[in-house]
Amino acid sequence: MSHAKYQALIEAAKQVEPPKVAVAHPCDHSSLAGAAQAAALGLMRPILIGPEARIRDIARQIDVDVSSMTMIDTEHSHASAQRAVAAVRDGDAEAIMKGSLHTDELMGAVVKTDGGLRTARRLSHCFIMDVPDHVEPLIITDAAVNILPTLADKVDIVQNAIDLAAALGVAEVRVAILSAVETVNPKIPSTIEAAALCKMADRGQITGALLDGPLALDNAIDLEAAATKHIVSPVAGRANVLLVPDLEAGNMLAKSLTFLAHADAAGIVLGARVPIVLTSRADSVIARLASCAVASLLVDKRRRTRKGAVA
Fold it and tell me: What angle do CA 13, 19, 25 make, to 5 degrees?
């Protein structure tokens, strides 16, 4: 199967300085192999954080050379999560990658009021989907972090996704705010929130993209479906960012694309001080590498922004 869209991301990430990534608890085959593969491609410089003897034993089992990688010894997964966050706060790491610990354990350390990595922006997750026969990658948000986001939450969620698309080099970011229908219906709250978000974009409260909504999925991504409904919009039929009503809808959409359309799903958490790569044992190798590439491009964008601010 072709993965031209992910390959393009990986090739772009190879052109920038690889970030230092705190890999939290890479204590199974897939997480350690994923970090090693990303390092071998020049997508990151891993800092392996976990029980050192266990990591070295796994490395021997899968024939991975970790001798040149920085390693920080911890007793257990909880300590690994805390130490990964501390590495960022100390300036030793520019991103975090989840290993074999539970997502809640890692994110708990990230969102701690004292010593975490919160910013003024709400944390949210984006899937960058490589869908066969679809022209460009689709960013779906939020399908993993925010369960029932409010309108205020969605402002941050959509701005995080827009900033991600810009870092990935998307020339024109087109956001479809999804619902079941494409007209505002007071009985369907997501349609009202979609209309409000579009007006907020008109007023400069959301920047960097074209927004339209409510839009049903078909007329968000298919030009013929949009034309059939007589929707005239620079977004309808051409969306490259899909803002879902809630986590359940987003999760079902992403998994439907994965299991029915044979798409791959790279994932990243935004809104913290650094990007956070959330990988799964079920991820394909290409999706895992694409997630690392996305983190690398985000870090590079932040570096260049900081240099511009200083200049």
Answer: 115
Backbone torsion region of residue 177, taken as left when φ is above 0, otherwise alpha when ψ lies between -120 and 50, otherwise beta: beta
Distance CA(268)–CA(306), nearest Å, equals 21
Residue type, 304: R
Half-sphere exposure of 146 (CA within 13 A, CB side): 28
Residue 21: domain span: 1-118+272-311
The token pair that represents 107 in the structure block = 């994110």
Q: How confident is the model over 123-159, as pLDDT tens digits?
A: 999 999 999 988 899 999 999 999 999 999 999 999 9
Locus of tokens 């369960």: 147
Query: What is the rounded CA–CA span in Å between residue 56 and residue 205?
Result: 49
- For 115, other C-beta atoms within 10 Å of its C-beta total 10
How far is the C-alpha of 85 from the C-alpha of 284, rounded, in Å? 26
CA distance 308 to 311: 5
Residues 187 and 310 in one domain: no
The structure's pTM equals: 0.93
Peptide bond into 163 cis (omega under 30): no
CATH number reported for the structural domain that contains residue 87 in this entry: 3.40.50.10950
Contacts of 234 (CB under 8 A, 6+ apart): 174, 210, 212
CA dist 211 and 169 (Å) reads 18
Determine how many CB atoms are found less than 10 A away from the CB of residue 234: 12
Helices (H) and strands (E) in the chain, counts: 11, 11
